[in-house]
Amino acid sequence: MSLETDVLAEFRAAIGEQHVLTEAALLRACETATFPTTQQVFGLLQPASAEEVAACVKVAANHRVPLYPISRGRNWGLGSRVPSNHAVLLDLSRMNRILHFDERFGCLTLEPGVTFEQVHAFLIRQKAQWFLPTIGGPPDASVLGNFLERGDGIGPRAERTANMASLQVVLGDGSIIDDGYARFEDIPLALLSAMPAGPAFSSIFTQSNLGVVTRMTVSLARRPSHLQMVYAPIPDEHRVCTIDALQQLQTVIGSEAFLTLWNGGKLNARGQAMPQVDANAWFLSGALYGHSSLMAQAQKEAAIAALASGLPALQFFDESNLPDFQQQAGIYLGQPSTLNLQSLYAASQRTMPETPDPDRDGCGAIWLCPEIPFDGATIVRAITLCETILRKYNLSPILGMSALSSRTVRFFVSILYDRTAENADENAMQCHDEMQAALLAEGFYPYRLGIQSMNAVAPSPLLERIKAALDPKGILAPGRY
């Protein structure tokens, strides 16, 4: 399929000829992810405002042309910018303004094209007492895109949906709505809360195809006066009891901590372990965020009391005992890094270029993102399941998890491989499909899906009814969630 001349003319009239792109090489690049795809991209639209987005949506609705919104297209491992079904891409990267910053309350209003490195640099220039928890992905990833996909932050306030408000959304008929308190004119609450009286709608625009979000206010985390990094290898015989102790610790220290577990395969793949460690070993890492010396000491004592018996090599680092602490701690204070991207290139035994682009560079990567009860025996069972299936397909187990609450963990499974090897794509996809089925059979359902697995979970009948009301022509990201 190619766009009809009259449709192209209407899109060009709406946003300018130079922002309606149909070059074959560009469209092929847009159809490329880090795993095999068959979806076609018919064109690329680059609006610069909510009004231009609305104009594009109206044209698309009139001609029943499917649109697939992307913020910046850095959703590597989950589909990149490839649509879930054939579509025209609605690329929002030109909408890249930070619209408002409230220093007192720590909130930021921004557009879809604003990146994590852009926000970090802005807050440093402002000498702000706040930071935005960054991600393990690329520094030029979209903040709004990560929030809408319910990605994970590194640090306090890492649960994205709990820290967003006042969405501006373009619906499938081209109408523009303001969510939450933002629907009332010029009131301070619009920046501070997402919960006016009545039903709350913000979350239905996350991981959905119900509208195009063109603006959002996000809550920031306060910079701690005392940051402590935590690290420990986990003895194999103490895995279950350590995870259970970590769960109890999380109930005590709550959101002012960020704690993760990674296997040696992950540390080796991203070049973090020199010399390399046992790929099957597991490690605790993270940070404690203290806002006074007393609080920091109490956090450390709580961690020692909970973990030291099972982790004899438990260590705490700060400026007093780690010379490059500021550099090492940057990731915990909102400073984006390309460190995690190293693992995508390591699987192909290549050096990561200065400007990494795993799609362009032919990296093989597929993520699975199950959520698992925060119980030691259950988590170890999930680890064993994933390790067994990965090894069956001669793939390295590269696993990790983060504790955003005391009830569940977000589990990360990385299927990383060399796409140039014979039958590598087929092998990786078979591994993905078998592992996803096995996880579902155990009740470990995904908290996030890639385009390769949109049919993994049965659709909600209620969601289908809402979709019919908000996008009656069904043009927005068909096939997505």
Top keywords for this entry?
481 residues; alpha+beta; Uridine Diphospho-n-acetylenolpyruvylglucosamine Reductase, domain 2; Vanillyl-alcohol Oxidase, Chain A, domain 3; five-stranded antiparallel sheet
Arrangement of strands in the largest sheet = 15-12-14-13-17-18-16-19
In the CATH classification, which architecture of the largest domain applies? 3-Layer(aba) Sandwich
Tally of strands: 19
In whole angstroms, how far apart are the ends? 24 Å
Q: Which outline best applies?
A: globular
How would you characterize the largest beta sheet? Answer: 8 strands, antiparallel
Unreliable segments (pLDDT under 50, ≥5 consecutive)?
none
Structure, described:
Belongs to the FAD-binding oxidoreductase/transferase type 4 family. Keywords: FAD, Flavoprotein. The strands form four sheets. This protein has an eight-stranded antiparallel beta sheet. It has a five-stranded antiparallel beta sheet with strand order 5-6-10-8-9. A four-stranded mixed beta sheet has the order 1-2-4-3, with helices on both faces. The longest helix has 18 residues, at 424-441. The protein is built from 14 helices and 19 strands. The protein is α+β, with helices and mostly antiparallel strands and 481 residues long. Helix content is 30%, strand content 22%. The protein has three domains: 5-91, Uridine Diphospho-n-acetylenolpyruvylglucosamine Reductase, domain 2 (2-Layer Sandwich); 98-222, Uridine Diphospho-n-acetylenolpyruvylglucosamine Reductase, domain 3 (2-Layer Sandwich); 226-449, FAD-linked oxidases, C-terminal domain (Vanillyl-alcohol Oxidase, Chain A, domain 3). It has helices at residues 5-15, 24-30, 50-63, 116-125, 143-148, 189-192, 239-253, 264-269, 293-307, 325-329, 342-346, 376-392, 424-441, 461-470; strands at 20-21, 41-45, 67-70, 87-91, 98-102, 107-110, 130-131, 164-170, 176-178, 212-219, 221-222, 226-234, 257-263, 282-290, 315-317, 363-373, 398-403, 408-418, 446-448.
